[in-house]
Specification:
Number of strands: 10
InterPro entries: cNMP-bd_dom, cNMP-bd_dom_sf, Env_Response_Regulators, HTH_CRP, RmlC-like_jellyroll, WH-like_DNA-bd_sf, WH_DNA-bd_sf
Helix content: 40-55%
CATH class of the largest domain: Mainly Beta
Radius of gyration: 19 Å
Number of domains: 2
Domain HTH crp-type: 145-209
Keywords: DNA-binding, Transcription, Transcription regulation
Protein name: Crp/Fnr family transcriptional regulator
Shape: elongated
CATH topology of the largest domain: Jelly Rolls
Largest sheet: 4 strands, antiparallel
Strand content: 15-25%
CATH architecture of the largest domain: Sandwich
Distance between the termini: 47 Å
Organism: Rhizobium rhizophilum
Order of helices and strands: HHEEEEEHEEHHHEHHEEH
Length: 220
């Protein structure tokens, strides 16, 4: 049987002692739509995601949600890292956006590896820096980029190979940081231009090149 740590390419540079300590932990399966933590919760473990996707959301006082960042295999959660390192409670909510397979590293094991393994410590801080970059991107998008361009980027990022986006208007509004009504109006405009089509329970991209042009305008 192939050890899970040997299958996780992002751990390729981990030293033998750290790999052995991690390999002693058993991966767990987490069902789609499971809430992993809520605001005010204390961090119980450091999560190493092997498969699936986690969305971390912030809810404002007005009740509006905003996707802060997503976590995919090889990436870490900023809030979990801060919670395990410094005891800070969660300020956001994490939800499994698909079925997950993850390894939950207890704080005692995490602290020991951070102190003894340079490779593991580098992995944690490199992934932490990447997530901070994602947060800065979200801030820039919400503050300076037009809704149409943010929507185009979100549709392309979440589309499958056939161009289907299995998200509601509310889901898209959370991802790009605006109101559902605004997303609905912008999608209607894209439908009228023949760029996308509204189908039952999903959106289908018709003119991917045009949508990509809009997204590039957002990045430029």
């Amino acid at each position: 049987m192939v050890a899970w740590a040997d299958q996780a390419g992002f751990l390729a540079g981990i030293d033998a002692d750290a790999r052995q300590a991690l390999q002693a932990l058993t991966p767990v399966h987490v069902p789609h739509r499971t809430t992993l933590f809520r605001p005010g919760d204390a961090a119980q473990s450091f999560v190493i995601l092997l498969s699936g996707r986690i969305g971390v959301y912030l809810t404002g006082r007005n009740g509006r949600e905003l996707l802060l960042y997503s976590v995919t295999p090889g990436e870490t959660c900023v809030q979990t890292t801060l919670g395990v390192l410094g005891g800070a409670p969660y300020s956001g909510e994490a939800v499994a956006e698909s079925d997950l397979v993850a390894v939950m590293v207890p704080p005692a094991v995490f602290e020991r590896l951070m102190a003894s393994s340079t490779a593991f410590r580098n992995f944690v801080f490199r992934a932490f820096a990447d997530r901070l970059g994602d947060l800065m991107f979200v801030l820039e998008q919400v503050a300076f980029v037009k809704v149409e361009q943010r929507l185009a980027h979100a549709l392309l990022e979440r589309a499958d190979e056939e161009g289907h986006v299995a998200l509601t208007h509310h889901d898209l509004a959370v991802i790009i940081g605006t109101a559902r009504e605004v997303v609905s109006r912008r999608l209607e405009a894209l439908v009228s231009k023949g760029v996308v089509a509204n189908e039952r329970g999903q959106i289908r991209i018709i003119a991917r090149a045009e949508l990509a042009r809009m997204a590039r305008a957002a990045e430029g």
